[in-house]
Automatic annotation (TrEMBL):
One of its GO terms (molecular function) is cysteine-type deubiquitinase activity. Signal peptide: none annotated. Residues 5-229 form the UCH catalytic domain. It is an enzyme of class 3 (hydrolase). Ubiquitin-protein hydrolase is involved both in the processing of ubiquitin precursors and of ubiquitinated proteins. This enzyme is a thiol protease that recognizes and hydrolyzes a peptide bond at the C-terminal glycine of ubiquitin. CDD domains: Peptidase_C12_UCH_L1_L3. Its EC number is 3.4.19.12. This is Ubiquitin carboxyl-terminal hydrolase. One of its GO terms (cellular component) is cytoplasm. GO terms for biological process: protein deubiquitination; ubiquitin-dependent protein catabolic process. It comes from Oedothorax gibbosus. InterPro entries: Papain-like_cys_pep_sf, Peptidase_C12_UCH, Peptidase_C12_UCH_sf, UCH_AS.
Length: 230
């Protein structure tokens, strides 16, 4: 983790959509609330859904899960699509931005992302880099840093001090070439969760979210958001 601190990005669709607008994502695509992970209520989420973001508390259960995935990554048993866009998180409190970059970068074939926009240029410049190199490139991106700061300060809750520690963390669940991946900038590698398709993706991603909740049932502070059509 670098010495750079950002303000946490609030899990608020309005805040996140303003941030995505700053990055140049078309206004017809953005973040929506997922009010329930129950199958019958998932039908209320605007479609198509291209990615799902999950916000949850960092706990010992989460750290144990990270260690398990680290062992799998080192064993070489995890097969990852080479076209998957994945980066590490080295900036404290940048997990929201990293999750949104993961969502946009792995969904851009579904919408027109202008290559001259902040997001378009960042993704194009970094797509061939390693996860660590992408993270370091983000550290030097004044445009994304400024957009993140402006959006973080627009939240409904009072922005904390840069020195405050936040124990909440964002990950992204994306679909690439018929596979569901969990992208977490704190992990060594993406986590593969099997087959999916555009019709089943939201339910498949909701299942992964439920597994997070089942691992840590005493924690109630989980929030799920979709990235897709508005």
């Amino acid at each position: 983790m670098s010495k750079i601190n950002w303000l946490p990005l609030e899990s608020n669709p309005d805040v996140m959509n303003k941030f995505l607008e700053h990055l140049g994502v078309p206004p017809s695509w953005g973040i929506s609330d997922i009010i329930s992970l129950d199958d019958e209520l998932l039908s209320m989420v605007p479609t198509p859904v291209l990615a799902v973001l999950l916000l949850f508390p960092i706990s010992e259960k989460y750290n144990d899960y990270c260690n398990e995935q680290e062992a799998i990554a080192k064993s070489g048993d995890q097969n990852t699509d080479p076209s998957l866009y994945y980066m590490y998180q080295t900036i404290r409190n940048a997990c929201g931005t990293v999750a949104l970059i993961h969502a946009v970068a792995n969904s851009r074939e579904h919408f027109k992302l202008d290559p001259t926009t902040v997001a378009g240029k960042f993704i194009e410049d970094t797509k061939s880099m390693s996860p660590q190199e992408k993270a370091e490139f983000l550290e030097g991106s004044n445009e994304i840093s400024a957009a993140h700061e402006a959006s973080a300060e627009e939240g409904q809750t009072e922005a904390p001090s840069l020195d405050d520690k936040c124990n909440l963390h964002f990950i992204a669940l994306v679909q690439v070439n018929g596979k569901l991946y969990e992208l977490d900038g704190r992990k060594t590698a993406p986590v593969a969760h099997g087959d999916t398709n555009p019709d089943s993706f939201l339910k498949d991603a909701a299942k992964v979210c439920k597994e997070y909740m089942q691992r840590d049932p005493e924690n109630l502070n989980f929030t799920a958001l979709s990235f897709g059509a508005l």
